[in-house]
Amino acid sequence: MAKSDATSVNRKAEIISAAIEVFAEVGYYRATTAQVAERAKISQPYVFRFFSTKELLLLSALEVSWSRVIESFRKVVEATSPELLEATLIRDYERIQGMHRNEILLQMQAQTMGEEAIQETMRGGFKEVRDMVLTAFREAGIEQSEERTMLFLARGMLCNVAVALNMPELMKG
């Protein structure tokens, strides 16, 4: 990869990171590309060099957040014994929440957005996580794999609410 290509890739990642922060803090609809540019310490036209619309920037940010969860879960599934699988996935998700809180908040916002492209990205992320967990639970011999997968996902959503509202007591149990 040429140096300018590497710089472009890094710059694009920096813009996405800035967008995740800004969108999580002020909300996607209130956020502006000017705020994203300011956070990334670049000019607003430079944002548009990589993302022609704010929605495309959001979609990229959501894809980054889903990729983080999916790749992390994939590593857990590949390296964890069946009897520790569910508990390890839960701990891993809690770690992601702690390290990437803004990504979780962004996903929570996106769940309520009606734009088809955003809905499709969210459906795709949830489907991939659900399918991976269900397959892993089945292969691990976990009884009632579908029910356990649903409960796992529901617990994750409750954890998201607990993080968003700063109510850690919701995650005890």
Write up what this structure looks like:
With 173 residues, the chain is an all-alpha fold. The chain has one domain: Tetracycline Repressor, domain 2, CATH 1.10.357. The chain has 8 helices and no strands. The chain has helices at residues 3-26, 33-40, 44-50, 54-79, 85-99, 101-110, 116-139, 145-165. Helix 1 (3-26) crosses helix 6 and helix 4 (54-79) runs antiparallel to helix 5 (85-99).
The total tally of domains equals 1
Low-pLDDT sequence parts: none
- What fraction strand? under 5%
- What's the overall average pLDDT, rounded? 94
Name of the CATH superfamily: Tetracycline Repressor, domain 2
Give the termini distance in whole angstroms.
49 Å
Based on secondary structure, the structural category is mainly alpha
Key attributes of the depicted protein:
Tetracycline Repressor, domain 2, 173 residues, 8 helices, mainly alpha, single chain
Element layout with pairings:
Blueprint: H1 3-26, H2 33-40, H3 44-50, H4 54-79, H5 85-99, H6 101-110, H7 116-139, H8 145-165
In short:
The protein is mostly helical and 173 residues long. The protein is 78% helix and 0% strand. The chain contains 8 helices and no strands.
